[in-house]
Specification:
Elements: E1 2-6, E2 9-14, E3 17-22, H1 32-47, E4 53-58, H2 81-90, E5 95-99, E6 102-104, H3 106-113, E7 116-120, E8 124-126, H4 140-148, H5 150-159, E9 162-164, H6 165-171, E10 176-178, H7 182-196, H8 213-225, H9 231-244, H10 247-262, H11 265-279, E11 298-301, H12 305-316, E12 321-324, H13 328-340, H14 343-348, H15 353-360, E13 363-366, E14 377-380, H16 386-399, E15 405-408, H17 415-420, E16 428-432, E17 442-446, H18 453-465, E18 469-473, H19 481-498, H20 502-512, H21 518-525, H22 527-537, H23 543-547, H24 550-556, E19 570-571, E20 577-578, H25 581-594, H26 603-624, H27 630-640, H28 650-657, H29 659-672, H30 675-678, H31 682-689
Parallel strand pairs: 3-4, 4-5, 5-7, 6-8, 7-10, 11-12, 11-14, 12-13, 14-15, 15-16, 17-18
Antiparallel strand pairs: 1-2, 2-3, 8-9, 16-17, 19-20
Helix pairs in contact: 1-2, 2-3, 3-4, 4-5, 5-9, 8-9, 9-10, 11-27, 12-13, 19-26, 20-26, 22-24, 26-29, 28-29, 29-31
This protein binds (2S,3S)-3-hydroxy-2-methylbutanoyl-COA.
Length: about 700
């Protein structure tokens, strides 16, 4: 028998076993048609006495990757996932879930409601709802702890991580791990059951005993690691609830909480980012069938801090890397520094010395450019000087093969000028990593006017392969991230002139959700670095910006930040920032010199000036086409610059406030600080008059 119960679910009978196969590309999300098809399959199974066991499996690259995120916020179409899962639970014949790929969210909840679960060796399982500001709503909360115990279930649900098939078997989540063909193994497994007809209900299992003290310690740990996120805390409450509440009642509370969270601002923000990160991979005017070039070997020029981190990224992803430096001494230092990057992994035991040795065999160093003749991609990471980079590009053009890509790591220089220094400008683009390059997720890929579409497709694919969040941006000074950051930094400095203190500004921005405020960040980076970056860009600054030289004064006073024990703050052994009257004095003197009299500054003004200056600049960036979508800017700031993900990013945040209100505030600060700093961008004027948002 070969039958369809919906356009995505088909049934096949193999002896006493009914096999329901779901095929709903790309990730078998539990869309309405899948739910309809599975309920019909269950109906058929229950009615057909000759069918002794049912196998639920998926075609394509993965078992169900969860509820269909695109259906959230829409009216719920029956049958609900919970209804399907209740039916599975009540079924009085064994149902087997055969999992491959990533069995996630509602997909794992289906498996939890089956009598048996078998998995392919490379399958992974998880309840990642919390990453979307949600929590399991169809049995994950009430069933998983019953199978694997409260501590492990709490970690999986509150953190949203995945576990492998063997670990799942060891925890009791999976009954069998299969290295061979999963479909036939599942049918064999079911046939063995068909004779005995043994049904197991997870819902009947007791909740294993556990140390209740775990709940509060988990709450504290999650509050620290997931600052401001509500769902992880609610996860602990729900787990606590299910340990003392009858199954059916607990399942109802679980479902109600999930429904509530679906309409919560945090979940809307995180779902926006989920979609925006995937949209960012779709490149404007690069046909979707453009095939990226084959990148097997990579070169990195410049063994400095950035070059070392970039080389480590590629080595970590399994690429052989050739690191080019001017002297053997600088290369030896770089090799030692790269080894040191793994010190933490070795200490934590997540890597052995032998594994590190193995990994370091992928790294070769040379002082000769000839070593780059066979590489497919070179990342240039030499000092931020146009003449130096131009000379490097000319030398690269002389040795590289015809289709090798030159990617510059410049953060401020003109990509067109660099492309003109190469013999094949169509092979030139930017790959702008952030320090520390082996840690920071964000990768700003930069397109030049002549960059070939397949080069853009290649650096995006490579960005994903090295575990980065690649976002394509266009030509503009400081590209997107730094350009917006410079506006926030400007306002932070101006606010000191107007009467705020470093502590007040840092408190407001870290209170908003940034991991660190601008002044504590400057003390971390070093006032000499900040002063150098400022002076490199001073020519393009306004008069007030040029004379707002607090950074220079701190550097001149030897207050370079943490590295000298004093910057905007004083630092003792514990490296905690302490207020320093000497800084208050320095600021008072500066204000007097500049003719500013300190005034009371509200926290609201600090937040608005710092963040709206960024949003206004982002609107100009969109108008110029230096970023393709507002979502790209949200991804840049949440994956690279600490904008709290549960607030969706600067453009999403501005839309929540309302563009008309954003414009009103910008007009107000135009009057207080100056038109040249806060005059609303043309895009904001347009959107406000059309009552639209950035994402409309
Ligand atoms: N619903 C709809 N579309 C989805 C989807 C989903 N759950 N997951 C992925 N897609 C789309 C995605 O937008 C992209 O589309 C394409 O699939 C490939 O994804 C009741 C409430 C599965 C690990 O949170 O983590 O169940 O851009 O580019 O890198 O308790 O996608 O091509 O048009 O990410 O190989 C819980 C989310 C839902 C899993 C694959 N599930 N997905 O990663 O490919 S809530 C999740 C992922 C829930 C229940 C609750 C990943 C992946 P497009 P991709 P990938």
């Amino acid at each position: 028998m070969n039958d369809e119960t919906s356009e995505t679910v088909s049934l096949v009978r193999v002896g006493p076993v009914l096999v329901a196969t779901v095929d709903n590309p790309p990730v078998n999300a539990l869309s309405h048609s899948v739910r309809v098809g599975l309920v019909a399959a269950l109906q058929r199974f229950e009615e057909d006495v000759d069918c002794k066991a049912l196998v639920i499996r998926c075609d394509g690259r993965t078992f169900f990757a969860g509820a269909d995120i695109r259906e959230f916020g829409q009216p719920v179409k029956e049958p609900r996932l919970g209804e399907l899962i209740d039916r599975l639970d009540r079924c009085d014949k064994p149902v087997i879930a055969a999992m491959h790929g990533t069995a996630l969210g509602g997909g794992l909840e289906i498996a939890l409601a089956c009598s048996y679960r078998i998995a392919a060796l490379d399958a992974r399982m998880g309840l990642p709802e919390v990453k979307l500001g949600l929590l399991p709503g169809s049995g994950g909360i009430v069933r998983l702890p019953r199978l694997i115990g409260v501590p492990d279930a709490l970690t999986m649900i509150a953190e949203g991580g995945q576990i492998g098939a063997e670990a799942a078997r060891d925890k009791g989540l999976v009954d069998e791990v299969v290295a061979s063909d999963l479909r036939s193994a599942a049918i064999d497994f079911a046939q063995r059951l068909a004779d005995v007809g043994a049904v197991r209900r997870t819902s009947d299992l007791p909740v294993p005993a556990f140390d209740e003290g775990l709940l509060d310690s988990k709450r504290a740990e999650l509050a620290k690691r997931h600052k401001g996120l509500k769902a992880p805390q609610i996860a602990v409450d729900l787990i606590e609830m299910m340990t003392v509440t009858p199954f059916v009642e607990a399942a109802a509370k679980e479902y109600a909480t999930c429904r509530e969270l679906i309409s919560s601002p945090q979940s809307k923000a995180l779902r926006h980012l989920f979609a925006a990160e995937r949209a960012a991979l779709k490149l404007e005017d690069v046909p979707t069938d453009t095939k990226p070039r084959d990148v097997r070997k990579v070169g990195v020029v410049g063994p400095g801090v950035m070059g070392r981190g970039i080389a480590a990224c590629f080595v970590d992803a399994g690429f052989p890397v050739i690191l080019v430096g001017r002297s053997a001494e600088s290369l030896t230092k770089a090799q030692a520094a790269i080894r040191k990057l793994y010190g933490g992994s070795i200490k934590r035991g997540s890597m052995t010395e032998a594994q590190l040795d193995e990994r370091m065999t992928l790294l070769e160093t040379t002082t000769s450019y000839d070593g780059l003749a066979n590489v497919d991609l070179v990342v240039e990471a030499v000092t931020e000087n146009l003449d130096v980079k131009t000379e490097v590009f000319a030398r690269l053009s002389a040795v590289l093969k015809a289709n090798a890509i030159i990617a510059t790591n410049t953060s401020f220089l003109d990509i067109e000028a660099l492309a003109s220094a190469a013999s094949r400008p169509e092979n030139v683009a930017g790959m702008h990593f952030f320090n520390p390059a082996n840690v920071m997720k964000l990768l700003e890929n930069v397109r030049a006017v002549r960059t070939a579409p397949e080069v853009l497709a290649t650096i995006t694919a490579v960005g994903k392969k090295i575990g980065k969040v690649p976002v394509m941006v266009g030509r503009s000074e400081g590209f997107v991230a730094n350009r917006m950051l410079s506006k926030r930094s400007r306002e932070a400095q101006f606010l000191l002139e107007d009467g705020a203190t470093p502590r007040q500004v840092d408190k407001v921005l870290s209170g908003f959700g940034f991991p660190i405020g601008p002044f504590a960040l400057a003390d971390l980076a070093g006032m000499d670095v900040m002063a150098a970056a400022r002076n490199a860009r001073i020519a393009g600054m306004t008069l007030r910006e040029q004379s707002c030289n607090i950074v220079d004064k701190l550097a001149a006073a030897g207050r370079l930040g943490q590295k000298t024990g004093a910057g905007y703050y004083l630092y003792g052994e514990d490296r905690k920032p302490q207020d320093d009257p000497a800084v208050d004095q320095l600021l008072a003197t500066h204000r007097a010199e500049r003719g500013f009299s300190a005034r009371e500054i509200s926290d609201e003004e600090i937040l608005e000036r710092c963040l709206l200056a960024m949003v206004n600049e982002a609107a100009k960036i969109l108008d110029e086409g230096a970023a393709a979508r507002p979502g790209d800017i949200d991804v840049i700031w949440t994956s690279g610059f600490g904008w709290p993900s549960h607030l969706g990013g600067p453009m999403f945040w501005a839309d929540q406030i309302g563009i008309a209100n954003v414009k009103e505030a910008l007009d107000r600060y135009s009057r207080i600080v100056g038109e040249e700093y806060f005059k609303p961008a043309a895009l904001i004027e347009r959107l406000a008059s059309e009552r639209r948002g950035f994402h409309d």
